Amino acid sequence: MVDLDQSTAVSPGLCRHGQQCSGSAINGKKPSKKSRTRRGKRGRRRRNKRNRNNKTPPPFLPPEAEEGNIEYKLKLVNPTQYRFEHLATQLKWRLQEGRGEAVYQIGVEDNGLLVGLTEADMKASLKTLKRMAEKVGADITLLREREVDYDLDRNTRKIAEVLVRKVPDDQQFLDLRVAVLGNVDSGKSTLLGVLTQGELDNGRGRARLNLFRHLHEIQTGRTSSISFEILGFNSKGEVVNYSESRTAEEICESSSKMITFIDLAGHHKYLKTTVFGLTSYCPDFAMLVVSANTGIAGTTREHLGLAMALKVPIFIVVSKVDLCSRGTVERTVRQLERVLKQPGCNKVPMVVSNPDDAVTAAQQFTQSTCVTPIFTLSSVSGESLDLLKVFLNILPPLSNSKEQEELMQQLTEFQVDEIYSVPDVGTVVGGTLYSGVCREGERLVVGPTDEGRFLRLKVGSIQRNRSACRVLRAGQAATLALGNFDRSLLRKGMVMVSPKMNPTICCQFEAAIVLLFHAKTFRRGSQVTVHVGNVRQTATVECLHGKDELRTGERAVVRFRFIKHPEYLRVGAKMLFREGVTKGIGHVTRLLPPSQNHDQNQSHDQNLQEY
User: Fold this and answer.
1) 479 - beta bridge partners?
2) Strand partners, 554
3) Mean pLDDT across the stretch 453-463?
4) Gap between the Cα atoms of 290 and 278, Å rounded
5) In terms of C-beta density within 10 A (0-12 exposed, 13-18 middle, 19 or more buried), how is residue 66 classed?
6) According to the CATH classification, is domain 70-166 in 1.20.140?
7) Distance between CA 528 and CA 576 in Å, rounded?
8) What's 109's DSSP letter?
9) Same topology for domains 402-497 and 505-592, yes or no?
């Protein structure tokens, strides 16, 4: 048996680790408070001396990228004419990269070092930047100024962040689509009414009346269909909306940047409409509206999951903060932060409380898929509404000019999402141009029909955001007039393509899927509603490769067969399927040719007859 006293014995003057210690510690007494204070002061003096010798390194931004719309400039003071021409050409390139927008960081070196400028140099640099912008047909807006503080530098130095935006010409404005999600009665339509009409709500839903399309929506106050609203920003960053009795055409003419809000339904019984809006209209971003007084309720989690499954960047707006106390609002924000940080989401919530936060959030939001800005505002009092406008004004596009050019070089492909009959105009289709360029008078083919054929037609006129347009480019949404083309031959989910394309159609396809949720097991013979782009149709599971059945969270390659008519699909397209509580996501991996579809359908029918 070991003697505890002997095992813990140490040499006189040494501590347990063999190091010299004070006499008071040897005797088992704590060092006196006076001696500890003396040693603490000496330690602080040594640390302060080290800090004076080693100056704190200045902060950095990431190094300047060759591509993209962000440019670093140390200073722009009195450039020569040759230098000025070179700077203007550089600005033109950055504007082209940002599709009409560029951000200049003044007082920053190319490696990202924040050097800063004196008051006089900063004023001269901004004056030069304004001249450069005027030369290329753009305006500048000072987003923010920040002081650069160094320990030994007594002079105040600043860096400036400046937004440069092209003046609109020939409807070449930057157009971003934002899908509006959230539970029923969370204030989605009211918020859009306030943003687009320029008037605050009266607390009883007056602001949302202009957004509703059906009588039952006005009577119940609940959106059941998909509606579109526009909010513009001019080249100086000022809001352009319906507030001064403008028409949609005037808003388009005055705006350099357009935000198109896609107002989706919040009620669970209209979920298929919401899913169609998310998959078909290709939103750039999603805005999830959460009511401060109810928190995360109803379809909120489901809508958040849908946006994340389709990889749509999402930001959150906590509305109705005027109805509840500050403590209730903070509790709702904490609840959102917990959900966003969960392993399934892995998001970094960022609460926006001032204009500087709004600028930072807009820039980091597109650079990192993890950042999720959270706004707390009121549509009645107008609290923090300006922060959301600042964020939307600065929000850059996800795709750059090179990706846009590549899509425009491809053959024309227009997705049909809506079909109308307009008096004195005829048949009109609405949708998004996926690739190529579409002009007035162009001849295209539309299909597939129930028999799998494509029909010839001619594009009459084009409208974007309710105003006439001559040329439609890839990624833009519009309505096309088709004259006296028979409306009964058209349906949602069709495509209008160039006759040169020779489009492929299929009744069966294979997809790599993940089963997000299923009450029992997912097996051969199951029927689900499949959403692929603007295609929405019921499909039967023909087989699961390598497995007999699937359970929640499992992956497999599955063959689906459409039950009604063939569809036009693309390999690699994102896919979402649902049936009741069953939900899954994936992407199309293979299209089965029509001959193979026909042979397999015959064998399938024979098996059924034998059975």
Assistant:
1) 430, 463
2) none
3) 93
4) 18
5) exposed
6) no
7) 10
8) -
9) yes
Look-up: residue for tokens 């360029």? 437
Contact indicator for 518, 551 with CB cutoff of 8 Å:
yes
pLDDT tens digits, 244-253 = 767 888 888 8
- The 10 Å Cβ neighbour count of residue 545 is 10
Residue 298, class by beta-carbon neighbours within 10 Å (0-12 exposed, 13-18 middle, 19+ buried)? middle
What would the pLDDT profile of 418-429 be if each residue is shown by its tens digit?
Answer: 999 999 899 999
Closest CA to 129 of 106, 99, 148, 110: 106
Omega prior to 448 cis, within 30 of 0: yes
Question: Contact at 8 Å (CB) between 139 and 236?
Answer: yes
**What whole-number distance in Å separates Cα of residue 150 and Cα of residue 154?**
8
Is domain 505-592 given the CATH code 3.10.290.10 in the classification?
Answer: no
Q: In sequence order, which residues have a C-beta less than 8 Å from that of residue 214 and are 6 or more positions away?
A: 224, 225
- Rounded mean pLDDT of 604-608? 38
Determine the Cα–Cα distance for residues 562 and 601; give it in Å rounded to an integer. 11
pLDDT tens figures, 529-586:
999 999 999 999 999 998 888 988 899 999 999 999 999 999 999 999 988 777 899 9
Assign domain 174-398 to its CATH superfamily. Answer: P-loop containing nucleotide triphosphate hydrolases (3.40.50.300)
According to CATH, what is the number of the domain 402-497? 2.40.30.10
Tell me which amino acid residue 201 is.
D
385: its two tokens: 């509404």
- Calpha distance 121→160 (Å, rounded): 11
| C-alpha to C-alpha distances, 547 to 400, 519, 562, 579, nearest whole angstrom | 42, 18, 21, 21
Domain ranges of the chain: 70-166, 174-398, 402-497, 505-592
Instruction: Using DSSP bridges, classify how beta strands 285-291 and 174-182 pair: parallel, antiparallel or unpaired.
Output: parallel
* Dihedral sign for Cα atoms in the order 316, 321, 327, 332: negative
Give the tokens for residue 457.
């037609």
Residue 36 three-state SS: helix
